[in-house]
Amino acid sequence: MDKLHQDWPEPIVRVQSLSESGINKIPDRYIKPLPDRPSSCGDGGDDDDVNIPIIDLSGLFGDDANLHASIMDQVSVACREWGFFQVINHGVSPELMDSARQAWREFFHSPMEVKQAYANSPKTYEGYGSRLGVDKGAILDWGDYYFLHYKPLPLKDYKKWPATPPNCREVIDEYGKQVVGLSGRLMKVLSLNLGLGDHDLQNAFGGENIGACLRVNFYPKCPQPDLTLGLSPHSDPGGMTILLPDDQVVGLQVRRDGKWITVKPAPHAFIVNIGDQIQVLSNATYKSVEHRVIVNSAKERISLAFFYNPKSDIPIEPMKELVTPQNPALYPAMTFDEYRLFIRMRGPRGKCQVEALKSPR
């Protein structure tokens, strides 16, 4: 695919419009192959006894050394064994979390002409979208989204942020500021747990010059949720993802030991997961984990994925301190820009993207 590909290969259909049209069967374009459907092999993720770890961060920066060590250890175990965890008492205002979710719900329920004014293209993905990847004839996911840049400042363009509802831009700005702060605190924890200095991982991202962007996912009601997915299996290409899930409707599933586990969100929790760039930097001590989204016939669902990424033009490779003769570097250096281009041409493809980078042995 030509790097300068400017537009989508076929007309864009908004999934929300399909859903609201009252169809009782989904178009063939959204029907997944049998092995990829959520109902296949009985692994629809309905194991009620299992959930990703929930970690209370309230003692992380206090004076209780034992509590501090316990939280650090919980994060370490979650990163090594799960690649996913939830955080509560994380320092982001619960009211702001609710306001952000509500503002975006209002945007997605705005008239189509309001949303279409922000329609995106594959060149940057920024704006209102309905597909990932530019393969003509690809099987599509049952969801619409809005993608915008928060950092670095030259990419932050308020004109590309929704002006509907009226408080939307203000809420997004404050939300981004607080979530960037949380991400920085978590980066310190991850860095120390890897045996590095507390700023080493952050410095590998570019210090203060990181990238950050927001993808708001809107999954409309689906008449045949057992045949499709809201988002196909993938690992996140960036550094770390801070997800604000829907507090009313489950949908995120994480692959563990070959099974799909449905994440049950705790009240006002964020779901944190390791992205491919931290897998590379940690030389696979921490691994990005495949996840997907299932949809629902009775309820729509909204989620906000905030991506905390390395500066786009810094070569990312395993940290020197984590490479030894016994543990050689698993990945060659590649900038996040180069990696993102590689991903965008192909769309979500499980874990094969980052695995394809591995240096030949």
TrEMBL record:
It catalyses: jasmonate + 2-oxoglutarate + O2 = (1R,2R)-12-hydroxyjasmonate + succinate + CO2. SUPFAM superfamilies: Clavaminate synthase-like. GO terms for biological process: defense response; negative regulation of defense response to insect; regulation of defense response to fungus; regulation of jasmonic acid mediated signaling pathway. Belongs to the iron/ascorbate-dependent oxidoreductase family. GO terms for molecular function: dioxygenase activity; jasmonic acid hydrolase; L-ascorbic acid binding; metal ion binding. Pfam families: 2OG-FeII_Oxy, DIOX_N. This is Fe2OG dioxygenase domain-containing protein. Residues 209-310 form the Fe2OG dioxygenase domain. Keywords: Dioxygenase, Iron, Jasmonic acid signaling pathway, Metal-binding, Oxidoreductase, Plant defense, Vitamin C. InterPro entries: DIOX_N, IPNS-like_FE2OG_OXY, IPNS-like_sf, Oxoglu/Fe-dep_dioxygenase_dom, Plant_2OG-oxidoreductases. Its cofactor is Fe(2+); L-ascorbate.
